[in-house]
Amino acid sequence: MGLTIHYDLRSSSRTNEEAWQLVEQLRQRALDLPFRFVGDLLDLKGAECEYDKRERTDRHRWLLIQANQ
Question: Where are the domains of the chain?
Fold first, then answer.
């Protein structure tokens, strides 16, 4: 059994670079905690974000479905 936690984050970041730095800082904090696994950051753009054009077995498909909500 796994645990999934959903977050709704807001930031005053004005640029993509500022937002990316903030996400990197959040990931680093997660790495500092005793989690068993912290994944790499993923940067998808354009057609890469279209979950309905991915195979059902694609490992990022569910992430994209959830991100679309």
Answer: 16-68
